[in-house]
Amino acid sequence: MKQLFLDITAELDTLTELKWVDEEKGQMNFENPPVVFPAALVAISTPQRRSINDKHQNVAAQVQVTLAFDFMGNTNTRTPMVARAKSLEYYDVVEKTKNLLHGYSNDDISTMDCTNIVQLPRPDQYKTVALTFSTTFFDANGEL
Fold first, then answer.
1. 1, 58, 104, 143: which sits with the fewest CB atoms below 10 Å from its CB?
2. Rounded mean pLDDT of 24-53?
């Protein structure tokens, strides 16, 4: 999984809109999150593993990319269009992230599929959006 993490974070680091790419470690649970916004926080899980033999497995993985924004704008319909458009720019980063990783593959993993995008409500000025991607890989005794 380490190599998968390194590959995904390297890909995300190519998006110039993102100022911080890191492993998800609960950073957004702090009053002053220790990140630079906009940030991408990556968590990988392997909810399904099927043994081929005693040393090899086919693995279904989920990659969750949580995008975090320091959000101070207004989005209501009464907001002047220029200000509203500025406030909604985070959607562009969400879309670019989805487009970057949906369909991504390399020699180690199958094509990634974006399975959902969910806004995570928060009581503060931060906006968080979680994108979940699924992929599969072959685990030859912990080699990925």
1. 143
2. 95
